[in-house]
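$ run holo --ligand "tryptophan" --emit tokens
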Amino acid sequence: MSDEKDEMIVTPFEVRGILDYDRLIEEFGTQRINKKLKERIYKIAGDRHFLLERDLFFSHRDLDWVLNEYEKKNPFIIYTGRGPSGHTHIGHLVPWMFTKWFQDRMKTRLYFQMTNDEKYFFNAHLSLEDVKRYTYENTLDLLALGFNPEDTYIIQDIEHIGLLYEIAVEVARKVTFSTVKATFGFDNSTNIGSIWHPAIQAVPAFLHSWIYGRNTPCIIPCAIDQDPFWRVTRDVAEKLGYYKPASIQCMFVPGLKEGGKMSASDPMSAVFTTDTPKAAKKKVMAAFTGGRTTVEEQRRLGANPDICSVFKYYNFLFMPDNKDLADIEHKCRSGEILCGECKQILAPMMMEFLEKHQAAREEVKDRVEDFSASRLRDDIRK
Ligand code: TRP
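-- output --
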């Protein structure tokens, strides 16, 4: 019997229920990243990545094509982004870290879109001041990961609309209301800003080609919930004379509560990058695990890491080494370790991570402008 609360809903605006990623691939019409494709990436990158190894980046569109072009000396640019609706969760950093690895390995340019307009349109409780403040705060989190201003351009939609507008109008003329209604579930009560937003989110995929007057492949690392945007973007691309953007898609980093992804509306469900290490430790100690009801039972039967949020943190972030991960998994399944002890391992990792991250955030504060996409205005082809 399936419960209504278990029903899977995955849209760019809502993710809930029990996630079935195979079904998402099928319903969205994307491809699985298979072993052969992984090996191709590793060969070109000269390095492996645990998020690919563990199939946490698992789905794609045209990744093989992008690699073909790359090998033919037609390199791509990377485009990703963030909707600044609140502080950054630890989970948001995961695809950004992957993006950094990919950018470094492929030696290419990154365009990062902060959709402050989107979050204003879609969230009635947020003021313009809120989304602008979160744009700044989230930018610090991104930059704290060590991006380089020479090839990283941060686009803030509201501030940089002049840079985006010409492409946006070209896109908008090609997308009908009935397409966005069907793709995003909009209806007559949806505000027109939201209806327009898919045009804006398409723009960075074409921006490089437009600025430099040379059609350039683009690949978008993102969580799979963003795929509907890329379907619309891909539909218009060729009509406008651009390549269809490729994408490489990851799973959602789960929260500390049972099931689902992290939720900004429930502060205990996620560790924010701005939490004090002490507060983060408290959240870890209160996290949902796959433990048994009694110590005796757990010693005898072992626990279940498959549903455990603590184990998921090891898997996604804190134990990139497969040996470490296999070791803790074995101890968990065999009943050798209890959940309280396991949390005592995660907590200091989390605290140390936050301390370092917060120091890095401070350090980038006076360099934010160096990354601004406003620099691109001088490059626009005459
Ligand atoms: N819509 C995304 C969000 O709400 C933000 C975003 C814009 C994005 N462009 C992107 C995310 C490209 C991934 C890739 O978070």
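-- notes --
Residues 12, 79-83, 113, 115, 118, 201, 220, 222, 226 surround tryptophan (CB under 6 Å).
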